[in-house]
Amino acid sequence: MEKPWVPDLADFSRRLKKYETLPAASPVIREVLQSIDEVSASFHKTAALIERDPALALQVLRSANSLTSSFSGRVLSVLQAVRLLGFRTLKGIVMASVLLDRSRKHPGIPELWTHSQIVSLNCRVLSRYLKVPWEEEAQTVGLLHDIGKVFFYEEYPAFYEQEFQLGDSERAIPDWVREREVFGIDHSFVGNKIARAFGLPKILSEPILFLHQPPHEMTFPELTHILIVADGMATALGHGAPEFDFVEPGFLDALHRLALDENDLEFLLTESLGRTSMVELLSL
Prior knowledge:
Structural class: mainly alpha
CATH class of the largest domain: Mainly Alpha
Distance between the termini: 32 Å
Strand content: under 5%
Largest sheet: none
Shape: globular
Number of strands: 0
CATH architecture of the largest domain: Orthogonal Bundle
Number of helices: 15
Helix content: 55-70%
């Protein structure tokens, strides 16, 4: 496919700068984020703030049910949702919700949100299976791993509309490869930049940056490889990104680095498959 254009790099930088601050959000959402960041953050206070915004309360309940119901039973209150999700995951949900809300009408956003929730669920499944100590961080990074695509969907819709048409065809190539060919950077770079601008710690921003091409030396290699496997599992189960619907070669290497074999993968896919129906039912 021919390149649709060669973007002006100065214009690209100006556009990206708009995403270095959280988009305009309701006073309630700003208060929720402030409450989460407090040293003495309170489940009760945060839940009470969320309940003042019905749309946000519904999103938190949906996310809690889709991500945790298979482990903990139905989530029936905002307070229960906040306790089950934890503050890190809750902050990721609120931030992702704000970013995705303003892009809701753009092609690919609903599928992106469902994909991100399923990757987050897979990160949780993998973390529990591997008994790692940062399950909440893994779940959060799964939720936010594709936030860089929001920038491209909003700023360059014509480019992605062409990519969507090739998403499941034999002519499709990885989305991040096409982005680098056309723009010089990819959505993982943009997502990492947004994550750092929002003040997210390196344990969350680094796996986003290295999702598609991890270097040999990383600060959080195990979490990065969990994210790669979780992303590949979502695609294998039919919930890939709309612009590239194939499992990438790095998936097998990540499995190897996590010391997982075919039997482990079969079990993990079965676990994930039994939970993804809830995500599909409750996704926006």
